[in-house]
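Dear support,

Our group has been running a series of protein-ligand predictions, and this particular one with glutathione is the one our PI (initials K.S.) wants archived with full inputs and outputs. We had some confusion internally about which version of the output was final, so please treat the block below as the authoritative record. The input we submitted was:
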Amino acid sequence: MLRLWGRLSSINVRKAEWAAREVGVTFERIDAGGSYGGLDTPEALARNPNRMIPVLDDDGFVLWESNIIVRYLCARYAPERLYPLDLKRRFDAERWMDWQQTTLNPAGRGAFMQLIRTPAERRDAAVIGASRAATEPLLELLDRHLADRRYVAGDDFTMADIPVGCEVHRWFGLPLARPERPNLERWYAELRERPAATVLAVALW
Ligand SMILES: N[C@@H](CCC(=O)N[C@@H](CS)C(=O)NCC(=O)O)C(=O)O
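Confirmed final output from the archive:
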């Protein structure tokens, strides 16, 4: 049995949940982290000494790090369909996954933490402004990239659309004015129509 630990109010857990649904494997998700706690028990620490979610257990094989969980699920249960076997196509997808984790996520995190996780009276407008200034050029880049391809890594949906889609979902859920980005909006609307993309159906904080 495949088990996934983590609360759906976490962007990183949403990636893993979406990937598990997308590959069609039977799995059980156990709420953990945030107000659910449960990260400090000996069992949880043995699974992930970082005290973080998401954590996956596939019949005794334990993994943490959300994008690695997405890669593993796609490679194990949907090779070629979601995890391209051609090396150039695969590393094109890998590149966008790393871009999400190392570039887009740090840029948007400040605005998210302020606008969603911080009470209104304690919010720092400068942090929000800096986060917007860092994020909008990246979304402009992504919008241009999506002008002549249907998905992030070409004309087929791949594992790369999952983390990038979750990040854009979170940004689009923030109460901020945003410039029009027709290609990005077209791609995001297509993602939301996928039956497996239940985590994009509503804003989940
Ligand atoms: N690089 C890790 C980051 C994991 C992470 O930051 N998880 C957060 C939730 S998004 C966490 O576990 N926070 C502690 C908690 O939820 O109690 C990944 O991508 O999986």
